[in-house]
Predict the 3D structure of the following.
Amino acid sequence: MRPTDSDKTTQRRTDRAGISLASGRGTLTRSGRAGRHLSVLPTWEPIPVRIEAHDPLSQAGAVAQLGRHNAIELIDNQAKRPGTVLVLITDSLHETALVRLRRLVRTDGVRLVLVVDEVRDEHHVPLIACGIDAVLRRGEATEGKLLRTVLATARGEGDPAADLRGLQATRVGVATYSGAPRPVLTTREVEVLGLFAEGMSTLDVAAGLGCSERTVKNVLKAVTARLGLRNRVQAVSFALRQGYI
């Protein structure tokens, strides 16, 4: 039996960020990464996303970033749908805000992506205790990064502890490189750090670049040694901050 035009339309949809959704298997494949599949909701059931911001400009910006993608269905802030991801944008954290975060996660049952200007060290434990799924610094919340974070959160793959370590590493990097000339990263170093920034493992990066894991590790070691960084998180944070990725 030959597939109808409707079947062909349902079979494959591609959003504007270069992320393809194959509805027949209910999987997500990053274009150009053959064979790498990440589980998400089927394309006929896009991820319900609520956006709340403390100011209209931030609200409009986040709506514009996420609203154009087929994998996302923006819903009203009063709506309650199973599997909802809430993107909460705020400038600072205080006790009242932390109490509200706990209520949103525990009572409303949402998966929560927090986008914030700054997180102090004393907020790390309370934030993780709240049950949030991901944390982004607002200055680094580009369209691609915000979309990837929402998709990962919907799959239950958020890692707020790692996010908070990354924010801390960024602060260290700012103090280290403030006023210094911008170091140069090679094309291969940018490729490796860019894939790490997408949450890939060393094995995934090696497969994506067509090289060995040892090569990937050597590239990372060269970057951290040359820039005086401690680990991969700091290297990725540095590359993001300097505009390489």
About this structure: Residues 6-43, 172-180 have pLDDT under 50 and may be disordered.
